[in-house]
Amino acid sequence: MPPDIDTEFDPEDVKKSSRDPEAMRASLERWLATQLPADAKPTVGEVSSPSATGMSSETLLFDARWSEGGKTVEQAFVARVEPDANDCPVFPAYDLDAQYKVMRHVRENSGVPVPVVRWLETDASHLGAPFFVMERAEGRVPPDVLPYPFGSWVTEASAEERRQLQDESVGVLVDLHTIDARGSELDFLDFDLPGATPLERHFENQRRFYQWVRGDRRHPIIEQSFAWLETNWPSVEGEAVISWGDSRIGNMMYDGFTPSAVLDWEMAARGPRELDVAWMIFLHCFFQEIAISAGQEGLPDFLQPADVAATYQTRTGIELAHLDWYQVYAGLRHAIIMARIHQRSVHFGQAEWPEDIDSVIYHRPTLEKMIDGSWWK
Fold it and tell me: Can you tell me whether residue 190 is helix, strand or coil?
């Protein structure tokens, strides 16, 4: 079993923010009054954060009530707030404006169930950081803590229901990738970095992300993965689409087994469609391998590469290329995030750096097998 994975883990123990919920509630109430008519007199209820998912942008859940046209309006909202720099954020930068724009664009130009985004606030004086507010969607989410293969509504579903969940989740990627991504209005999704193609620039962004994360440490498995990916670079790169970036079922809400909301767009970019397909495959593989290492059966027949690729290709008529390479790339990208998440735990006094530094990357054995070729046999 990987170190520090505790099957009795309480998600409330994960330290995510040093901000005070009551202070945030009062600030949101004052701010909301500036967005509504002068006589609206809004009130904001208790502010909370979801515990079973999410380790990046700060997510605030709150209910608001106000007067409008002589009637009382009640609405459940979600605020996505740029994390405090003192809280050791996962990413070096959080472009809330880009998240706001891509969510609105996807909702307006596809059938992807993106929540209604109501307001973007770039003035950090209100909550101490920029934020945007969207209407709260309804549905259930495959949990990250404990990961859904350990036992959840996903494992309790029938094989037919899980297949529906899988196929309709892949369908979200299909719908997203049908949006024409060539327009200048989406130029904000490009990385302003060296590289002749979107994939090359995406790769350079990950290299710089790693340099920022590692500091004076070095993670051999990450550096080995970078080297393998460069040596085995894809011979062709497909057209650039809107890549969701964090395309996994844990970032979707479901009504039954149908996606009802697609969340967490902070990793969105222009890039090949294989980025999203491989990420969806690999993130299930990551959770499945943790379950197996803990003696659980998990979901061995769920989100398998051949099945996912076949569904995507049948629905689009487009053959995915170099999907193995993109799965290694997904593993590399997730390894950098895992290293940073452990650094957060160290920052909050909840962990220390082990002598074997790569042991904090729980999927190291998977990456090792992928880059030596034994994973694919």
Answer: coil
Tokens (6 digits) for 283: 């993130």
Q: 43 and 115, same structural domain?
A: yes
Q: Give per-residue pLDDT as tens, 186-217.
A: 999 999 999 999 999 999 999 999 999 998 89
Is 90 in contact with 344 (CB distance < 8 Å)? yes
pTM: 0.92
CATH code of residue 281: 3.90.1200.10
In terms of phi and psi (left: phi > 0; alpha: psi -120 to 50; beta: otherwise), the region of 352 is beta
Q: Look at residue 252 and tell me if it is in a domain.
A: yes
- Rounded distance between C-alpha atoms, residue 107 and residue 131, angstroms: 19
Based on the fold, state whether residues 91 and 232 are members of the same structural domain.
no
Closest alpha carbon to 241 in 272, 264, 266, 276? 272
What letter would DSSP give residue 140?
B
From the list 4, 375, 314, 349, the residue with the least C-alpha distance to 167 is: 314
The per-residue pLDDT for range 51-98, each reduced to its tens digit, is: 544 446 688 999 999 998 889 999 999 999 998 888 888 998 889 999
Based on the domain organization, do 69 and 111 belong to the same domain?
Answer: yes
DSSP per-residue letters across 246-302:
S-SGGGEEEETTEEEEE---TT-EEEETHHHHHHHHHHHHHHHHHHHHTT----TTS
Structural domain range at position 338: 148-376
Active-site positions read 246
